[in-house]
Write a structure and sequence with these properties.
175 residues; Alpha-Beta Plaits; 2-amino-4-hydroxy-6-hydroxymethyldihydropteridine diphosphokinase; transferase; ATP-binding; ATP binding
């Protein structure tokens, strides 16, 4: 059983439809989805705010690199163009963590770093992840830590910048 934690975001076009396209594309693999949050863009590029969520999915046919390919397919289907680092995007689908048989996958190859090297300092990842899985943990610097504790370490102003919305993504039969 291979389970993935995906951080999804969009700040171009119909942001909500872009996020929904991820759940639709993953179909029955979706196990859980967080509420949708709005966050200001960061990385020094002036741009519109993002809608963000976290999706937990499971597919025994995919390993970590298979999940990466699937994430890129979903981004490509949404017209994702990689022109500017941390620039605006129709859809961003990041692998945050992968578990294979309940064991966290660690990867440091050229194509994929797991767990995501910056997830532990990004409130727009941690807040939705905590909402969907309050018991979640992540390995940081070879130490397994609870998401709640990692979020406590994030600057309060960044945590406050992850704003709840009334928007909800639909899973499977909720259409």
């Amino acid at each position: 059983m291979t389970t993935v934690v995906l951080s999804i975001g969009s700040n171009l076009g119909d942001r909500m439809a872009r996020l929904q396209s991820v759940l639709d594309g993953l179909g029955h693999a979706v196990v859980a989805v967080s509420p949708v949050y709005e966050t200001d863009a960061w990385g020094g590029v002036e741009q519109a705010p993002f809608l963000n969520a976290v999706v937990i999915a499971d597919d025994p046919a995919l390993d970590s690199h298979g999940w990466l390919r699937r994430a890129h397919e979903l981004e490509d289907a949404a017209g994702r163009v990689r022109e500017q680092r941390w620039g605006p995007r129709t859809l961003d689908v990041d692998l945050v963590a992968v578990r294979d048989g309940g064991v966290e996958v660690i990867s440091h190859d050229d194509a994929l770093t797991l767990p995501h090297p910056f997830a532990h300092v990004r409130a727009f990842v941690l807040v939705p992840w905590l909402a969907v899985d309050p018991e979640a943990t992540l390995t940081v610097a070879a130490r397994r830590r609870r998401i709640a504790a990692l979020l406590d370490d994030v600057d309060a102003s960044e945590r406050a910048g992850v704003r709840p919305t009334d928007l909800r993504l639909r899973v499977g039969t909720e259409h």
